[in-house]
From TrEMBL:
This is VWFA domain-containing protein. Residues 330-515 form the VWFA domain. PROSITE patterns: VWFA. It comes from Digitaria exilis. InterPro entries: VWF_A, vWFA_dom_sf.
Amino acid sequence: MDDFARAVEDGLKLSKRLVLPGGVPPPRPPAGMERTVSAAAAAGPDPRLLPTAPTAYAVVTDPGAVDTPDVPSYQPYVYGRLDPPALIPLQMKEVDLAVDCALDAAHVTLRARWWVHCVTRSRDCDVRIVVPMGEQGSILGAEVSVGRRSYNTQVIEVEDHTVLNHGQIESGGLLKPQLFFLTIPQVEGGADIYATFRWSQKLLYDNGRFSVDIPFRFPYFVNPLPKVFMKREKIQLTVNSGFSKEVLLQGTSHPLKEKARQGDKLSFLHEAVVENWSSKDFNFSYSVYSADLSGGVLVQPSTLRDYDDRDRFCIFLLPGSGNRKVFRKAVVFIVDTSGSMQGKPLENVKHAVSATLSELVQGDYFNIITFNDELHSFSSCLEQVNEKSIASATDWMNSNFVAEGGTDIMHPLSEAMALLSSVHDALPQIYLVTDGSVDDEHNICQTIKTEIINRGSKSPRISTFGLGSHCNHYFLRMLASIGKGHYDAALETASIESRILKWFGRASSTIVANISVDAITHLDDFEVDSEYIPDISAKSPLCISGKYHGTFPETVIAKGCLADMKEFSIKLKVQHLKEIPLDKVMATQEISLLTSKAWLSADKQLERKVIKLSIQHSVPSEYTEMVLLQTNLDKPDATQKVKQKLKGHKGPDEPRVPLHGLKLGFGDKDATRANLTTAFGDAKQPEKNVILQKASGCCSQLADCLCCMCCIKACNRMNDQCAILMTQICAALACLGCYECCAEVCCGGSDS
């Protein structure tokens, strides 16, 4: 993202040309920030320029278009073009945030209005809107209106890939994980942009407390002048726990007022005229009162829109805030050390594994296996956890975590299963970390499934972690589902260590194992979305969804085994939902699980189910595309076209532009075999701004070189046009604040 931050930095320098109504300059940074930014400039672009809240940017290729829309500032005209373009953050007029929390997910709707304050009305520019999302954010839709044009996203089935224009990558998609963007073309200076974005994200859970975190820190430069615009900030939040238990407010970042409380449903509101937009992320935390394990069964009848005529259920279990004993563990880490893991990925994994070892306690056992073409083990057997063994393991990792060779997953998995076969007094657990995709993934799943069935309740739990985009995340998700473990992934290098620690924390904190539910004895048909019911962790709620035919009894019994080997049972009340749209809340999880099943079984009917579910809930999938549709409201049939889109139809002349980066894919075996460095979607090497590409009436040598010394050497003369052009170049560089470059160009520096 360095190139993005650098483009914003260039845009902020360009915006210094603006003089707003009343002769007032643009908003200035807070005291001390400008000095800090200047001091850090030599080290690269300031990371604080990356979007920390929904932000719109004018994409400026022609610096001559930068001016106030209504009152010209009469700044010197700047010739030339910017490549790559500068990004000028637009001032925001309104913002409205609505958050609906239900079970373990939050659905977020954000509405905002920006205006193109930095481009004269006689010109236009593209506008890029960037929306950062929270934990495991998944975009559900967007609508943008500009003048007589409107744009909206739609999820469609991909029958013919040639219909879509895959060349316009800048049109929208993911800049990086949890950072969605759209580019709206040819927006006139001074125009207002109305936008609505919807996404879902996971609620965080820690020690009995749910919390939702939404990026909502607006930088100073998006604040319009208070005397020109009144800034009204609105935040709405609803909480529906799904249980007939008291919901306790734990904390909030913004001054929310409770508006209503009906049973387990609460609603809050914050609405105020503010001097500046929010300077902190929105956070809200709450707990569902329970001293011990609690839960319920939520059921919802099918609708005519559902892809399946069976009714839907969700079994939701909370670990509670009590101090139940965690199972003793026998842990085997399996770490990919193939050549593609070189550099930061393997280094970050090593740090994370070292940190997880320190979380093991006396009575636990562990071992570490690294694999590429070959297999290397820290020990020939499981080691007891103590200071000496942990120190030895750390030294061993420092010597043996070397990236080289290919990828072979089955061999180390078999070795780990063999190591754990003799464990009787601890819960056996395997933690697989890989960045690659292999040819025998289907065989691995079937082999492990057979092994787990044969071993029964004493089979190892298998948790999987994927790095980057080369690995098959659906294989890893399915393997974790078969192994009653946990799946997670890091799609950015910087997040590897923190995500592995959270993943290990959830998977290693088992308090109830071997869960079974007696509902199947009362129903005609009962199907769970996941392969098996996972264990209950002290650090995450358990959410099991599926479909059924028949009638649920008033209560069902869930049973399991505690850490002291005693049997555990809990009576779960069945609730028929009216307030919570269960299909909407569970859609993202259901699509991921069904896609994993479809991949393993190659079942076309399952693929059709995923497609229908994806289109119904506007959740992108591997078998659908999210596209951006444009409607011209000036056309007489605009109303009819809107109605067609709402019904899922596309007008004959309506352009469809695909949005990119919304799919994980099924791995890249060719990249794995070639040991290509793991693809994380991290920042590319930034390009330099070329202020001037071409100038008419000047020698062709000068068009290719900004250095007047090189031009004179090439032409042996400098005519009047060259002198004028050099003056314009210096003015453009000075406008961007690049005085050193200006001096180099005008005084004969050697670098062009």
